[in-house]
Amino acid sequence: MSASMETFELQRLTVETGLALEETLLESICQGESRFGLVAWSPTDRALVMPRRHERVAGFPEARRALSERGWPIRFRATGGTPVPQSPAVVNVALALRCQVGSSAAHLEWGYHRLGDPWCAWLAALGVRYVDLGSAPGAYCDGRFNVRIGGRKLVGTAQRWRRVRGSRDMAMLAHGAMQVGDTPEALVAVVNAYQATVGDPQRFAAGSHVALSQALPDLAPEAALPELLERLVATPHAHGVQPVTGDRGEARS
Amino acid sequence: MTSDIRVPEDLWEGDTEGVITAWLVDDGATVAQGDLIAEMMVEKAQYEIEAPVSGRLVIAKEEDEVVAKGAVIATVET
């Protein structure tokens, strides 16, 4: 199975290949090979994906074994947060770009808006109401910059920042994982099973999540996705961080 | 002479604290300027931290320790 950074079409990849593609995307920015990149992929298999630090949690080996037996092997990702299920019901979009860091810039917030604002605009253009960025208490891997519909989490977002080789510039990878199908109950159950196995009392609520298929039952996600990707490419930069002039219309703001 | 390695002051808004998620070199190890030495997480963002100078690394904040903006997480003795 091959992965490509040359296309803005949705790629069907294993979770392992998709995560590796995102790392390749970030590294291409760090090596100075490109200044902007975007990939969209959806898994062909299933995994519970989390930062590697979770490996230090007591009970992790048992949880890894138990989840694998349920058909949800654990894999590690490079962005922050907590466990998230990946399956064919999820569409991932990652954008990476090179930034000149200013002394007063609020980089993380800028990165989340750079990814999330066009996502909200895309949903609004599809006719979805009550779309915004914010936290969704009770959701797994909650953060302050989920794409929400009516306060429920549709897209989880995370980032990774790395210095560009031989430069003061930074490379930012912003990632969004959108549940397009299945039910929130099904995916929340996987995360709660992990929580139970590692002995963490926190449980997550399906009611804090929403799938795109619930908001737009008649939408064919794959047909609508190119419009989202075009918006992510075309969005002008703002909020203080100066992107470096480069390919695909990236310009200093 | 020692050089401090600090959590960036301008990485995020507000007073949210971060956490050291990994040290990629051991306490007391020799590092070269630009080496990737640690990762921290704040606001679901992983941020890679490099050695600012070459020398001997002395870790001040352990893995999973909470850190604020500007906190010294290690020093490098040159």
UniProtKB/TrEMBL annotation, chain A:
Entries under SUPFAM superfamilies matching the protein: Class II aaRS and biotin synthetases
Domain BPL/LPL catalytic as annotated: residue spans: 32-240
Gene3D superfamilies: Bira Bifunctional Protein, Domain 2 (3.30.930.10)
Residue ranges of the TM segments: none
Domain of life, source organism: Bacteria
Residue ranges of coiled coil: none
UniProt protein name: BPL/LPL catalytic domain-containing protein
Native source species: Billgrantia gudaonensis
From TrEMBL, chain B:
Ranges that cross the membrane: none
The Lipoyl-binding domain, residue ranges: 2-77
Superkingdom of this protein's organism: Bacteria
Record-linked SUPFAM superfamilies: Single hybrid motif (SSF51230)
Cofactor: (R)-lipoate
Keyword field: Lipoyl
InterPro entries: 2-oxoA_DH_lipoyl-BS, Biotin_lipoyl, Single_hybrid_motif
Xref: PROSITE patterns: BIOTINYL_LIPOYL, LIPOYL
Name of the molecule in the record: Biotin-requiring enzyme
Phylogenetic placement of the source organism: Bacteria, Pseudomonadati, Pseudomonadota, Gammaproteobacteria, Oceanospirillales
